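User: I'm writing a short methods note and want a consistent example. For Orotate phosphoribosyltransferase, I'll paste the sequence; you return only the structure tokens, no commentary, since I'll be parsing the reply automatically.
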Amino acid sequence: MHLESEKVSIAKSQKETFEFLKNVENFKKLMPESIEKFEMLSTDSFLFQLKGMPTIKLKLEKTEPNHLVVLAASSDKLPFTLRGEIEEVNERDSSVQLIFEGEFNSMMAMMIKNPIKKFITTLSENLKAI
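Assistant:
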């Protein structure tokens, strides 16, 4: 399953935006209002739970300075990655697109597609306010 958020403009430089996303603790600020749990597990991993959803653990898997931040689920039950692609607009502004990639059977994909789409849309919308 491949889902993409809209590109959002952020009033921070590409480097500032990258540094914000690279610090996984900042994802707490981006979570939807329906968050029931957010817990840091280490400097590069956290778990969260949204209302009516299972707990999901994410770990910082890969970064490319100022351009890419990739988080990966640490569960085999829901194997997916969440990629943040950061582009420079000018020296004071950047844009970000979130991309969700996961391997799910068709029944699971049908059940989670809308909630995941809503989730990444909310994360990207909340990025505007950082």
